[in-house]
Amino acid sequence: MIDYATLAQESPSEVRHMIRKGQWDQPTSGLANGHTQANLVILPADYAYDFLLFCQRNPQPCPLLEVLDTGDPIVESMADHADIRTDIPRYRIYSKGILSKELTDIRAYWRDDFVSFLIGCSFSFEQALLENGIPVRQIEEQRNVPMYRTNIPCKSAGIFSGPVVVSMRPMTERQAIRAIQVTSRYPSVHGAPIHFGNPEKLGIRDLAHPDFGDAVTIREGEIPVFWACGVTPQAAVMDSRPDIAITHAPGHMFITDQKDTAFSIL
Amino acid sequence: MIDYATLAQESPSEVRHMIRKGQWDQPTSGLANGHTQANLVILPADYAYDFLLFCQRNPQPCPLLEVLDTGDPIVESMADHADIRTDIPRYRIYSKGILSKELTDIRAYWRDDFVSFLIGCSFSFEQALLENGIPVRQIEEQRNVPMYRTNIPCKSAGIFSGPVVVSMRPMTERQAIRAIQVTSRYPSVHGAPIHFGNPEKLGIRDLAHPDFGDAVTIREGEIPVFWACGVTPQAAVMDSRPDIAITHAPGHMFITDQKDTAFSIL
């Protein structure tokens, strides 16, 4: 395997090339630094309208970056002719909502009726938070961001429904005010937080036990700040138990050619 | 008919009630002042996926505000149980892209496979422009905003393709700078302009002859400023000649319960 520090400085296309050749099967955080990474959901066309509508109705947790044509595995807008079947380090195949396989190449499972959805990720605004002096605790502690199911229902669409899932970053009130300003500039990758302070208002009982990802330290004088999270659409897909669904493995994202800064409207 | 000044101050639900009862069949500009108005496109379900994808791929000209469930004529998110078949003053029915009827109530034409799309409109940011001292010439001159087909292609989706259509407002450079700031706050209703200055760069030959709407005066020292326009998806629908499509008549919009200010992210 290539070392991490090398890949952090590489171009997105070079990193995807190495992933495609099997030279990198680890998480992608920090690779091709400064470029947006995306969540992947692949569904058969029979489910695609409902899922597209679900994302349209819930844009804050489900910000669509690109939807490929039915049967077409080639990304054209977010990257220059990347192959969605090979250019992600790890995939998960779910049968009726149950994880059945984890693998590094899905060409053998590809079908002519598959539709691929690339969904925005909060990684895209974290660099902007750091540049504004706001701590991103899970980066400091080298963990995955803590994520929680809330008591806020998404608007349902066809077979898809489920709760909004949030990611949480602890910070002071003063930092939270700046974080609201900074992330408001990124409406197409989750935008501003949806809550801060008391987690019980979101139906979250224990911040130390996230539903996805890892717990992080909340220091004296800090409050939790909650953003709508791109795991929301994946959770809705799993809960609805489609015959087959393919996603990236957690943390093993699709690296786009787009810079994070391109998603800032201000 | 009720007079205009009365309806300008009424609530959205009261205005929709009068429209539903046939007491108002005129344009809606300025009615229920301060509340967002929306464009309407109704298509059979066979076309709905392609159209939803077209809007997802072209969010600046095609900002979706709400998509109703298949066969369901009741608006629930943008308004409290409005009936999309009766609550717009005038509708147009198109057969294979050709206007076949204009009428004030479409209940007799409703089908169980119809999907209704409500699409954002630049009316939503014009009040903010006025409040910032920026002229909105077509309001001053009591005309429809001038709109032009450009040489910029939309990203196509299934059967739908076509050029980006823009609306144009003339102003000074200094006002344009402020207008860019102000409209950047409204990413879900077209957002910032896509061009200013030389119209030929957009393939527009003559500002005095818009493709839709009315020409307006461009004063000495003013430049044209161009925003992506909600007529874009309608033009794409007409060009693709579906068996049937129903839209609002130009200027006769759906009045939502949402305030324009709710669409500002800052």
From TrEMBL, chains A, B:
InterPro entries membership: D-Glu_cyclase (IPR009906), Putative_hydro-lyase (IPR038021), UPF0317 (IPR016938)
EC class name: lyase
EC assignment: 4.2.1.-
Pfam families: D-Glu_cyclase
Keywords, in A-Z order: Lyase
Protein family membership: Belongs to the D-glutamate cyclase family.
UniProt protein name: Putative hydro-lyase ACFSUE_13320
Source organism: Sporolactobacillus shoreicorticis
Classification of source organism: Bacteria, Bacillati, Bacillota, Bacilli, Bacillales
